[in-house]
């Protein structure tokens, strides 16, 4: 099976994660890797994590890595689903990394000869927030989504559980 890159982008709770999981399973020769990026946990976030674990059940091998995507993926010998790039951007900002470091990390991942499926929240349809950090997050997310989409073989936009291929 030829390696490929795909992006599932959509609003929060749009169904993009489930559709990305189904896509990854269909495009994997063996049990795929679910690369979980969530780092900051409170009770509400733990409930979200538990729901995602239940949703994917034992169909994926879970690998947790909040920052170093490239290093983690190079060790994988199967398809990789990155869930999610938005949380990864948050983690990188929290740990003091800037756009250039994030761009280099994703460019390295995109250059790998592996099937990688990216999940990303579409944050560009809202208003410009008054908070500087929120604006920075939105700007970085928008630029990185363009980078990922340009390099992917397939891009899907998800609304109400329906993923439509736009590339």
TrEMBL record:
Gene3D superfamilies documented for this protein: P-loop containing nucleotide triphosphate hydrolases (3.40.50.300)
Residues that hold GTP according to the record: 10-17, 53-56, 64, 83
GO molecular function: adenosylcobinamide kinase activity; ATP binding; cobinamide phosphate guanylyltransferase activity; GTP binding
UniProt cross-references to InterPro entries, sorted A to Z: CobU/CobP (IPR003203), P-loop_NTPase (IPR027417)
Domain of life: Bacteria
Catalytic activity: adenosylcob(III)inamide + ATP = adenosylcob(III)inamide phosphate + ADP + H(+); adenosylcob(III)inamide + GTP = adenosylcob(III)inamide phosphate + GDP + H(+); adenosylcob(III)inamide phosphate + GTP + H(+) = adenosylcob(III)inamide-GDP + diphosphate
Record EC number: 2.7.1.156, 2.7.7.62
Record keyword Secreted present: no
Coiled-coil features, chain-numbered ranges: none
Cited function: Catalyzes ATP-dependent phosphorylation of adenosylcobinamide and addition of GMP to adenosylcobinamide phosphate.
Protein name in the entry: Adenosylcobinamide kinase
